[in-house]
């Protein structure tokens, strides 16, 4: 096969970043082709906790600075999109929770005192008690304080489904992706024998960006992976909870999001400190034992005797950076016709698109007259990953 196609922007990687960018560019009148070698949304995106952070938690480490501006605006932008009157029409995407909670199981720690000393935080955070507590914490034995953040939690499979609907016909399942060079410059990509020319090529393949850069003979931008060992628990006794449980340090002791299972039960997806370095070092059985111990201490009133448990290893892929830096903004690097990036958070996908759009505008890239696409093999779309695990 030696089909020859052309498009304004060729996007490689259909996680939330690539799909969001694709839908935004189509709205602006650009022709696009999005190529994925796996399942749309099936990388980090579906395995994320789906929280649309506004950056408030960074104040825990004193890092809520001017650099947090992009993330601070994300909840508003997503809310408008979900209401059908934003930059994309995401009406119909399932909202799991209108709020996300910070939960301190003990008395206020030093950390929290400085946290609430910040004016930026006080205006965004309100304490909740009694019947306002998340259902899973409404028990007479509950001790501690809970603060409500105006940050959404989304059902990622329904988000990916909607973004795929907004993608139009230009979705292509790929096996082999190679550079297409003309006059010594990148002019597009060879995808399974099809030559695809584009005004711009954008790599949004998450952890796959490193391999793609390698295929293009590029060493920059460097990528880092942060491995996580998440825990999944499903039980008839679980009620929804979307909360960061604070420990002594700047990182949450445990993060909990709740996801609907097909049989009507709730699945809790646990991350935070539990899933980081020491959790990564544990095998599956020890990691489940550690999670059981945490839940027995934190929510002893929940009967988990009939629970089903599993773990999931997943890497966060980000631009290489200092361990101290917090990803408050999406990252895009440019080299000629090529743009490469990571949103660094699902929530920052709109910021990622802004940065690519700004580069197109700066370079005077205009939509070219459309040529109809032939029938193309389409990638599959992710479903709820937890269904196969518990
Ligand atoms: P991905 O979702 O990884 O998508 C990459 C796509 O590229 C995939 O479809 C893959 O098939 C494709 N691909 C890979 N290699 C190639 C290749 N060589 N050729 C073609 N296609 C390729 N962020 C938040 O904002 N809120 C959260 O609550 C949150 N929780 C998280 C929890 C966990 C456990 C993890 C791991 C991350 C979390 N994140 C969260 C971060 C968020 O998931 C990611 O920043 C975001 O999903 C990255 O999206 P992406 O589109 O760049 O990458």
TrEMBL record:
Highest taxon listed in the record's lineage: Bacteria
Pfam families: DAO (PF01266)
Keywords: Oxidoreductase
Domain FAD dependent oxidoreductase as annotated: residue spans: 8-314
Protein name as catalogued: FAD-dependent oxidoreductase
